[in-house]
Amino acid sequence: LNVGKVPPHFFVAVRDDRTVGDALEALVTTELDSLGFDLVEFRRRGSRARPVLEVRMERRDGAALGVDDCARVSRALEARLDESRVAGERYVLEVSSPGIERPLRTVAEWRRFVGQSAVVTAEPLPGGKAEIEIVAVEGEPNAEVAVVRDARGAEHRLPFAAITQARLAFHWNR
After folding, report:
1. Based on the number of CB atoms within 10 Å of its own CB, is 174 exposed (0-12), middle (13-18) or buried (19 or more)?
2. Distance in angstroms between the alpha carbons of the first and the last residue of the chain
3. What are the Cα distances from residue 13, in Å, to 10, 117, 141?
4. Can you give the pTM of this predicted structure?
């Protein structure tokens, strides 16, 4: 028995990865904004010891994103990341355009891509996921709905709060 004895205590420092991820995304967003770019997607993968930071961006002026843009942003982000150490000492930074199967995260992006196909995950859709055509965006600010058409021609009204994931769909044969 350990009557009267104090059991040993062990303390372990645990880093909250959500907090680190949020801090990284905020740093990236701020730096992109100062350079005239918008963040489309930020992903953090890899390990804690060597995180891989994926930055997908576009030019705010609507012009095509070039290699020189990516290089300039990469240098600026590396300087900020090295200064802040929020990503640690060893990280991999990947900076690029969002690509042809870009995510749709904002109402403005949905409006921009009306008439295009997207793969959408949303509870109101049959099966919860479908490839759809974006028909319109309707409603008052903060209460907008996406009007979409499925492969059978049926229209669905999806509140943006019900959409958990959406990406443009690309087909080589079209």
Report:
1. exposed
2. 76
3. 10, 46, 43
4. 0.73
